[in-house]
Design brief:
Number of helices: 10
Oligomer: single chain
């Protein structure tokens, strides 16, 4: 086929595709963008769907789901400003509206208690319209020569990396459950090391302390459940898992401290 003819056919195909796309409604364009994970474009198209459009309710629901997902991700990233801004964009008609209000309440309460902070308004990973922006992270600072390495750093970083890959509520819970299993393995191992490093009297003392800690852990888990069972909102599910993990991590670090005193740092 002659080159110019191929060019004409190519342009014709492009023109036909453009006409076809232009014939789609804003809602359809939004769903197309959503299908390819272009959330920002989806939000822009859904925002153009007017109240007189038959798909207005569907567009509002889709926008609410997207904004709530952004708010929830910012919440777990400790970015109070972005979490608040995204949650406030969830339409009242969206099924996530109550969850968004619960998230806003949690942000206010945790910020007041000093348990949550974050970038000031206007900064962070998301812009005002939810557009993701990227700032260059500072170069990591190498620890000074001979500095003591945290023996539990790999467990911490593995959990953080898992959440970064799976920022949904279900993903965070799965990551935290997996982290709990990993920390439990470390708990068993370091308890054995501590026992091996002690004399007969020390072994009896640590065994008694461990039994009392297990009773404390179980009682604390019941208390955690009694608190979180009264709270509504999906963001509290991973928070409950994190509270339980924090109790185990504290004990593992305590036992590691004993071992380092007895054997010296690794």
């Amino acid at each position: 086929m002659h080159t110019s003819m191929r060019g004409v056919i190519h342009l014709s195909c492009v023109a036909a595709f453009s006409v076809l796309f232009s014939c789609k409604s804003d809602y359809e364009k939004g769903t197309d963008a959503l299908a390819v994970q272009d959330h920002q474009a989806a939000l822009q198209w859904f925002a153009k769907v007017g109240p007189s459009d038959d798909n207005y309710g569907n567009a509002q629901e889709a926008m609410g789901q997207l904004y709530y997902a952004k708010a929830e991700a910012a919440f777990y990233a400790q970015d109070a400003a972005t979490a608040r801004r995204m949650a406030e964009k969830v339409p009242a008609s969206c099924t996530k509206s109550l969850d968004a209000q619960a998230l806003l309440t949690a942000v206010r309460e945790l910020t007041a208690l000093g348990r949550m902070s974050g970038p000031s308004v206007g900064s962070g990973a998301h812009g005002e319209a939810g557009v993701e922006t990227h700032t260059q992270a500072p170069a990591p600072v190498a620890p000074p020569a001979g500095a003591h390495k945290d023996p539990l750093a790999d467990l911490e970083s593995s959990h953080e990396a898992c959440i970064e890959r799976n920022p949904t509520t279900a993903g965070m819970v799965q990551c935290t459950d997996a982290a709990y299993g990993a920390w439990e393995e470390e708990h068993t191992k370091v308890y054995g090391k501590a026992m091996a490093a002690l004399g007969p009297a020390g072994k009896l003392a640590l065994r008694d302390a461990q039994r009392r800690w297990i009773a404390f852990r179980d009682a604390e888990f019941i208390a955690i459940d009694s608190v979180y069972n009264r709270l509504e909102g999906t963001m509290y599910v991973p928070m409950r898992a994190s509270e339980r993990l924090a109790i185990l991590k504290a004990r593992v670090r305590q036992l590691h401290g004993y071992v380092e005193l007895l054997e010296g740092p690794e």
